[in-house]
User: Fold this.
Amino acid sequence: MSGDSQLRLGVLGVGRIGSMHVDLIANRTEGGTVTGVFDVHAAGARAVAERFGVTAFDSAEALIASDDVDAVAICTSTDTHVDLIVAAAEAGKAIFCEKPISLDLAEVDRGLAAVEAAGVPLHIGFNRRFDPGHRAVRDAVADGTVGDLRQIAITSRDPAPPPIGYIERSGGIFCDMTIHDFDMARYVAGSEVTEVFAKGWISVDQAIGDAGDYDTVTAMLTHENGVVTTIDNCRQSSYGYDQRVEAFGSSGAAISENHRDHYALTLTAEGGRSALVPNFFLERYIPSYVNQWNEFITAVTSGAPTPISGADGRAPLVMGLAAGRSVAEGRPVATTEID
Amino acid sequence: MSGDSQLRLGVLGVGRIGSMHVDLIANRTEGGTVTGVFDVHAAGARAVAERFGVTAFDSAEALIASDDVDAVAICTSTDTHVDLIVAAAEAGKAIFCEKPISLDLAEVDRGLAAVEAAGVPLHIGFNRRFDPGHRAVRDAVADGTVGDLRQIAITSRDPAPPPIGYIERSGGIFCDMTIHDFDMARYVAGSEVTEVFAKGWISVDQAIGDAGDYDTVTAMLTHENGVVTTIDNCRQSSYGYDQRVEAFGSSGAAISENHRDHYALTLTAEGGRSALVPNFFLERYIPSYVNQWNEFITAVTSGAPTPISGADGRAPLVMGLAAGRSVAEGRPVATTEID
Amino acid sequence: MSGDSQLRLGVLGVGRIGSMHVDLIANRTEGGTVTGVFDVHAAGARAVAERFGVTAFDSAEALIASDDVDAVAICTSTDTHVDLIVAAAEAGKAIFCEKPISLDLAEVDRGLAAVEAAGVPLHIGFNRRFDPGHRAVRDAVADGTVGDLRQIAITSRDPAPPPIGYIERSGGIFCDMTIHDFDMARYVAGSEVTEVFAKGWISVDQAIGDAGDYDTVTAMLTHENGVVTTIDNCRQSSYGYDQRVEAFGSSGAAISENHRDHYALTLTAEGGRSALVPNFFLERYIPSYVNQWNEFITAVTSGAPTPISGADGRAPLVMGLAAGRSVAEGRPVATTEID
Amino acid sequence: MSGDSQLRLGVLGVGRIGSMHVDLIANRTEGGTVTGVFDVHAAGARAVAERFGVTAFDSAEALIASDDVDAVAICTSTDTHVDLIVAAAEAGKAIFCEKPISLDLAEVDRGLAAVEAAGVPLHIGFNRRFDPGHRAVRDAVADGTVGDLRQIAITSRDPAPPPIGYIERSGGIFCDMTIHDFDMARYVAGSEVTEVFAKGWISVDQAIGDAGDYDTVTAMLTHENGVVTTIDNCRQSSYGYDQRVEAFGSSGAAISENHRDHYALTLTAEGGRSALVPNFFLERYIPSYVNQWNEFITAVTSGAPTPISGADGRAPLVMGLAAGRSVAEGRPVATTEID
Assistant:
């Protein structure tokens, strides 16, 4: 990377998530700056480039090769991640890659091999680990506050399902949505998952079922250390983006509760009324994204390991594939069956 | 008192509060038993006596004189308190007296003098001191958790005003209702009040104003130790019996929040819905009454001072009289002006 | 039953639970009265009888046969329940029986057959259905507030394990402790459970494992209507008796939260501090027991069906047996495999 | 203003608050853009100008006169506000002015007269009105949810006092800090204040007293419509920036509670632990500043009245002066005595 004191980032893919990252790096983080963007939709890339005063590159290759780019943020569609990881690794650039790395384990392994060969930093964007509330739960496990961990419960519900077109290319709910919770389970437990039992069904929109996916899933995970995790997911929640994590152990419990749009309570003869849960990730998780960028930038510039490794990105995919098989076959599936 | 291991109580006045006390002593407390009751409404006394299997006495004098009575609980109308205190003191009986002792300071002093002369225990029934939440606030002050105390805020609102007939004989809202909060201020602050500034007005029912009283009051108290307390009172609250106490100091704050009828939360597209605040003292303060009886009984049987002394019963009356004068004259009134 | 306006109850078994019931019927409910008790520990029965002024019978048979007993409450050890149910049914008495009916399905069926033959009312004591918070969750499902139900989550943790002697005779955690949650799942979902997948392990005390039981379990239930329920149980919780129920559907969620010993919050430079969760069922569920008695008494005296039928008592036992087999065989078990 | 679709703002004073405003206008709001800045500390202005890519003007006059400036944001020291308001008004620019307008009522009136003569929009920066929680309280009053308003309670405590140098130029706590709460009282009540009774004292730092100020105050306000407001203020709070507002009326109450740094709860044998209250205004009120800019920009560009008028800026100063006199003279002071 350059001798410049700022880590210079090039952002590949500036759709909803990618342009959010550009904004956050430019305005909300310390130590990083965006120097260029690329998107297959050239007009979108130009608009973002103009708004933030950065270069719109003509190709991903040109951005990756640029001397003004120390690190690349891969925010393109999932099927392009591994090629871009390989290219960036070969160019010696630090890499931030959105989840999932790929929907194909062999492809994931190809990407991770290239990263290892090049010795470049790689971080997978499981942003929820950086949420202060969820992190407080993990910390209460890690620092012994909850004692010997026994059970974890994760609830994660989106406000509304994505378009069917998105569903069709998503790899299925387990690899697209539950993958965040699979990561959270490993993060909180500090232990790998050995078995997955899952139920998946349609309760929101039959079109999702017609696309071969589920919109509602419940999963039960067994960790190597004996801890059992339950996960409740749904693609639709009337009251907002339900995001909760709890851990229970021999000395206590830690519970990361939902936020609210505000904290005013109205009391009348009908009882109490309070605000909605924040609608979606932009309303709920901006601080987690900001923290993630700051920790990624600090790690890369200081030479420390990135917070979330390639192996951390791979394990939840194995769990997602195991979950899919569990539903299909109606039985618990060992992760070793997948891997 | 008798050599019996149970403190034998005679209850004078078995209306709503008195019969509650009979029930609590009989069924919910340790170390005490009710042996007799008296009420000017003889039928009411007989009904209570029959229900609890105790003696209905023909007169207060007979109850007080009975060898089966170690202590009397005075739950009659306020204007009879002092005569009964004097009679019980002269009979050498321990005394539990509902608040207020009297609406007349000279009468209070006559009662307290009789108690002092007789050397009997006297306790004034400011039950809220025994509520676990409010007590936790006081304890956080007393044990140094909040540091040097600076400000206290007390909110106390009844669900609905009492009948006008009650209002007319009540001595006014400051001596009838706010008196609980005046006591709470002294209890939490651990310091006497030197000045009262109050506003009283009608916002609930003009008939209360026609009876010469206020139904809504706000008061600001200055304590000897410099702490300032605010009190918000109202005779009507649509959402239940609003009972909150908070203390703020150099190291922190302690806040006793309202309870709810239950703790289920419903979340829909309209936001959160929760339960009402418990309706009134029977729903909110039974544990405080039970604790009060247990502590009174323990004090009397062990010879320790009662939790709330005659002087503790007198001070809030002074504050109530000062508050009334403050509203009438539109100025802060020193408690020394009353006393 | 007698023409008397009070339902006269005889209580069989006056250990911890039975004597609590005597107290509640005598002092906290309307329409019922205790006329007699029996216990194999005669001294214990006599003490309770004396305290509450009721008859201590010499045998269960004598109590059941007494003309002063309209209904019997069976609070004895589980292995005696069915014989007593049969005897009471044959005597034409209404029956309240603590859970579980029996640990043996054939025995359960023998008891239910006797009840059906006699046409007497039978109620099984799953008291948690009468908790106002949990009931608010069920009501939010039943009245459509949460819309089409999708997922249920139940958390239930005891403060500390019972003695090993109790564990040994308990039938195992699924039939002794989780059975409450199995009942709650049916109650909230309004739908039978068709499949159980469970994990059970030791994380509290190896002696429980040596006794052939688990102390910590997580279960996942599939209901006939497609709803999936997760249950987290543990025999030990440092912070009190963790009792939570939540339901999620197309229009919202309803969440019954833990209570606290009180509702004072302390804020200092170390953050907020709040009170413990109530320690155990005596601190948490007295209102549910009171409501249960009132509803049982009303049902029996009015001739309406009891709130919790014999079939309601049988179904959770099937689930408990399925859960045990699921852990043993490491696979989901259909309830039809048991039944 | 220009035909440009963006409102072009020049920011006068780019210290802590001013540079925050530049950042928010540049990055978090819609419809506005910063075109220039000025500060008496030229180096500071240049740094901000460079960071945000805007012009650093050599003088306030030059900024005000610039054709690239449609509106000025006055974020300089209080004693310069009125001259800048007059200059901006004479230049026909829309004006956003931080609170207080001035510490001198005659000066305020000179500024307001200039604004009126010029017919330019003026907004006074009482940002807390735009906090979603506090606004929900006001809305619950305005839309009738709380019914006929009776009492308001406002708590506002800073984490730590400002430097003594700041205190000395602040005009005193009532005009510097409590002024926000005076504004909030008017905002929530929708009614002017006619009388102020206040206590002010030193409980944090004697140096503040030596500077002629108080660090802790409690005030009681009477509104024209009969509502009574209490305000608790302190310059130091160990647990963060305590910001609460509540309103009580005939139909209910609305309570804007403190936020927390996060919403994780830890439960152990010591009870519950939760996070701190956000430390100060940057952690608590950014959304209110963003909302304020959006509403100011919309008002100016659409020709609608600004959300907070010059008269709204003047009234709390009268209340602050009345509060000071009330403490000095130990009596309630009518606002007509000041004005």
User: Anything to note?
Assistant: The radius of gyration of chain D is 20 Å. Chain D is about 40% helix and 25% strand. The domain at 7-120 of chain D is CATH 3.40.50.720 (Rossmann fold).
